[in-house]
Hints:
Elements: E1 9-16, E2 19-27, E3 30-41, E4 46-56, H1 59-65, H2 69-88
Antiparallel strand pairs: 1-2, 2-3, 3-4
Amino acid sequence: YKFLREKYSSAVVLTHDPLTITxxxxxxxxxxxxxxxxxxxxxxxxxxxxELQFNFAVPLLRRVISPLMNxxxxxxxxxxxxxxxxxxxxxxx
Length: 93
């Protein structure tokens, strides 16, 4: 999204039991921005639940960016998985 530039800051909280990372917008272009990662040990690896909620405060941004967010989230998750494979090796079947 090179044609649009926005800045935001977020508050990130790590909780150990259960192991979660919660992110809320502190300042920026969203009326809502929340995401939560929950990591669960399966004994043979991990399961990660990811939740994302967002809404742009500016109607123009909402109309332009919202249709592209599924692709952006997919790229984000793919990058996370690729990095996990790089660090920990491929998933064992």
